[in-house]
Amino acid sequence: xxxxxxxITTPDGQCPAHVFTPTDGQGxxxxxxxxxxxxxxxxxxxxxxxxxxxxxxVLLPDLYYRYGAYGPFDPKEVFKGDFRAVLGPLMATxxxxxxxxxxxxxxxxxxxxxxxxxxxIGAVGFCMGGGMAIAAGGSxxxxxxxxxxxxxxxxxxxxxxxxxxxxxxxxxxxxxxxxEHDGSYPADMAERFEKAMSDAGVTFRSETYPAKHGWMxxxxxxxxxxxxxxxWRQMLAFFARTLVRG
Length: 246
What we know:
It holds the Pfam family DLH. By secondary structure, the protein is an alpha/beta fold.
């Protein structure tokens, strides 16, 4: 079986999580998958499975566990109306600082699995999860070797828990995939974020895709298959280079 469900005890409660493992039963390096604002749903599970099929043990925690039961949502339906009215109450229960505070619990869970190879892990986040992945890496820098953010928003703001403020702590290499059309990560914010990384000596690469915010998600109305497949190639090559097996 390559898909398990578990519950992880965090400082704030019980976090349901999905775990996907390689079908060959050999295990692999661990990845934490930080979801987008749409929450846990079939498309997220399928993406986590694709990463597992590439040879990784993938932990997909439900970042809305503090809210309670919800959905699953169909993003195409949600985005037809006022999506903030639907998702806003859930989003208000989480954030960069809260996700970072949960990092030790996620790492403790992965550390007790016999199929995880290597101590240092990777993380990937999408939309709101992009910044959360970076925040997690800043909270336990010695454990994260690689972090990828796809259409991550608000990566450099004046907020106390803005991801760019983690620059001085990060030891991970970053891959930042931005969109040409993304109001949550405009050019001036990208410049601010990249300057913070450069000033701190963080190894990173940024790439701007000819797409809209959310292009990687197959159930989003803005899904762009060509750009998404390019993103998958970049992501898998990034993790293959930065994460150690065995």
